[in-house]
Amino acid sequence: MTAILSIKDLRKSYADGFEALKGVSLDIREGEILALLGPNGAGKTTLISTVCGITTPTSGSVTVGGHDTQTEYRAARSMIGLVPQEIVLEPFEKVLNTVRFSRGLFGYRPDNARIEQILRKLSLWDKRKNAIKELSGGMKRRVLIAKALAHEPKILFLDEPTAGVDVELRKDMWDIVAELKQSGVTIILTTHYIEEAEAIADRVGVINRGELLLVQDKDKLMAQMGQKQIEVTLTEPISEIPASLAQHGLTLNGNGLTLVYTYDTNAERTGITKLLNDVAQAGLVLRDVQTRQSSLEEIFVTLVSGDAA
Q1: What is the pLDDT of residue 50?
Q2: pTM of the model
Q3: For 117-153, what is each residue's pLDDT tens digit?
Q4: Closest CA to 286 of 247, 257, 251, 252
Q5: How many angstroms separate the Cα of 54 from the Cα of each of 19, 25, 58, 71, 173?
Q6: In this model, does residue 19 exceed pLDDT 80?
Q7: Counting beta carbons within 10 angstroms of the beta carbon of residue 272, is it exposed (0 to 12), middle (13 to 18) or buried (19 or more)?
Q8: Using CA atoms, how far apart are residues 220 and 296, in angstroms rounded to an integer?
Q9: What is the largest distance, in Å, between two alpha-carbon atoms of the chain?
């Protein structure tokens, strides 16, 4: 798949010596959804701001559709739509005029049909004559997306798009993002919500302390790094794990009714067969056996804490 955005050894340092970005390199494929995960201060917003031309890099390069963001800024920026984390809108302006104005800023001719299409897609058409101050927080975020889409960008950056939005609206936003992908828009989003990345991303990038720790297809990441657990539910509770089972590294949960065994799916042998045989030899009677995959959140925490160490 063609890379529509290419970031090469991008660095950003400040006068006090702080390094916000430390040699970030990343190719983003046309038509994909990339979720960028990282704790506060990891460098997510700095990376987006630098790609969008809001922040000047110390070194490195960024090309958008083949256009260098430094030497061909106007051409590169015209391909990008940005939805910032902060809601900054003119409170007394009407929704329709706000979105029309954004299109004009990029030198595009008025296109009422296009604006109507965007507002309808974002469930804003019925609010088009409302002043921004009359909208809920969720609707204001939709207006930000409409503004970013007004000039028909090929790439859309969403910086914490569902921050402060309730669960129902968050899922609506996920549907909107999925529809945008279907229309051919490449989407890069930063998020603190791990379930957001699991729900909609094709690839996941993890950034911490200005360094990109990894970028991986979501499913491959979970398959390669995610561990599985077997939960063995007993018919009768036990107060402690029998000594004969100590070698398996079990934990005892559920008021003494559940034995939890963690194993690596990539290991040559999982040890499951021996575990179940040893459980039977210990005189324990099974009621149920279930498996559970590690969540993306657990993988993320492991990566970040490992880097911090």
Answers
A1: 94
A2: 0.76
A3: 999 988 999 999 999 999 988 899 899 999 999 999 9
A4: 257
A5: 17, 19, 13, 14, 25
A6: yes
A7: middle
A8: 11
A9: 79
Contacts of 79 (CB under 8 A, 6+ apart): 4, 64, 65, 67, 153, 154, 155
Cβ atoms of 292 and 228 closer than 8 Å = yes
Res. 224: pLDDT tops 70: no
Rounded Cα distance, 124 and 147, in Å = 12
Q: Length of the chain in residues, anyone?
A: 309
Helix (H, G, I), strand (E, B) or coil at 298: helix
- 33-37 and 203-208 as β-strands: parallel, antiparallel, unpaired? parallel
With the CA atoms of 184, 297, 145 and 62 taken in that order, what torsion angle do they form, in degrees rounded to the nearest 10? -60
* Architecture of the domain whose range is 227-293: 2-Layer Sandwich (3.30)
| Domain extent listing, the chain | 3-223, 227-293
* Domain 3-223, classified CATH 3.40.50.2000, yes or no: no
CA dist 306 and 309 (Å) reads: 5
Sheet holding 211-217: strands in order across?
Answer: 80-83, 155-159, 186-191, 33-37, 203-208, 211-217
| Cα-based angle 161, 119, 126 (whole degrees, multiple of 5) | 110
Check if the beta carbon of residue 83 is closer than 8 Å to that of residue 122. no
Q: What is the DSSP letter of 270?
A: -
Please tell me the distance from the alpha carbon of residue 234 to that of residue 54, in angstroms, as a whole number. 59
Write out the DSSP string of 149-171.
HTT--SEEEEESTTTT--HHHHH
Distance of CA 203 to the CA centre of its chain: 8
Phi first, then psi: what are they for 83, rounded to 5°?
-110, 105
Q: What does the block give as tokens for 248?
A: 């398996």
State in Å, rounded, how far the first CA of the chain is from the last one. Answer: 36
